Amino acid sequence: MSVSERYQLIQDELIQICERVKRNPDDIQIIAVTKYVSNETAQEAINAGVQHLGENRLEGFLEKYESIGQAANLHFIGTLQSRKVKDLIDYVDSIHSLDRKSLAKEINKRASREVSCFVQVNTSDEESKHGIKPEEVVPFIESLANYPNVKVVGLMTMAPLTEDEQYIRQCFRNLREVRDVVQRHQFPYAPCDQLSMGMSNDYQIAIEEGATHIRIGSKLVGKEV
């Protein structure tokens, strides 16, 4: 099956889910995670209509940018070391892994514009997962008030790899509830109206629970390496 065919199937499924839960499909962005595929396959996704690509390593991010330029929005979705911010800050559309003040400080220092950032939250309480604890989110965002180049557009989480759908759903629901708490504070630099959650194995649940950005790799572009 081609990337174009997979993309159409995912779009059709997204529309069906949105009809069921009374959401607008236009409110959800599909991010094709291209870390395991070639530049050619990434271009195939763009040709199919994909507007957003996600990379979790700096090397892969820069390689994709060099290949596709501004043909798609590039999202950095992996753990980002502060010392590497300077290498991607001019090219990134959104950073989905803001999880510490030192990183925010570096983004603010290196950026020449306002950068859209998602605060990464560990909603599953797994030690192996990155992200701050749900109860730390509001104090963390409060601490970013003096970083004008850091715009907190939303929250991000990764659900555990499990077949327990209720556990997955609760992780996504927890993120949405934290988002709602943040919004009540009405931080001018943190509209926080977006939720980056859901991957190839659980994006359907994420859509039902309010995701605005779903990060799909193997089910959309496959896996080549």
Largest sheet: 8 strands, parallel
Number of strands: 8
Radius of gyration: 17 Å
The coarse overall form would be globular
Order of helices and strands: HEHEHEHEHEHEHEHEH
**End-to-end separation:** 18 Å
Strand order of the largest sheet: 7-6-5-4-3-2-1-8
Q: Helix count?
A: 9
Which percent range fits the helix content? 40-55%
Uncertain runs: none
Content of β-strand: 15-25%
Structural class: alpha/beta
Task: Give the rounded overall mean pLDDT.
Answer: 96
What would you note in describing this structure?
The chain is α/β, with parallel strands linked by helices and 225 residues long. Helices cover 40% and strands 17% of the residues. The protein contains 9 helices and 8 strands. Strands 7-6-5-4-3-2-1-8 form an 8-stranded parallel β-sheet. α6 links the parallel β5 (115-120) and β6. The longest helix has 21 residues, at 165-185. The chain is globular and about 50 Å long. The two termini are 18 Å apart. The model has no long low-confidence stretch (mean pLDDT 96).
Short description:
The protein is α/β, with parallel strands linked by helices and 225 residues long.
Present the secondary structure layout.
Layout: H1 3-21, E1 29-33, H2 39-47, E2 52-55, H3 58-68, E3 73-76, H4 85-88, E4 94-98, H5 101-110, E5 115-120, H6 137-142, E6 150-156, H7 165-185, E7 194-196, H8 203-208, E8 213-216, H9 218-221
Parallel strand pairs: 1-2, 1-8, 2-3, 3-4, 4-5, 5-6, 6-7
List keywords for this structure.
225 residues; alpha/beta; 9 helices; eight-stranded parallel β-sheet; single chain
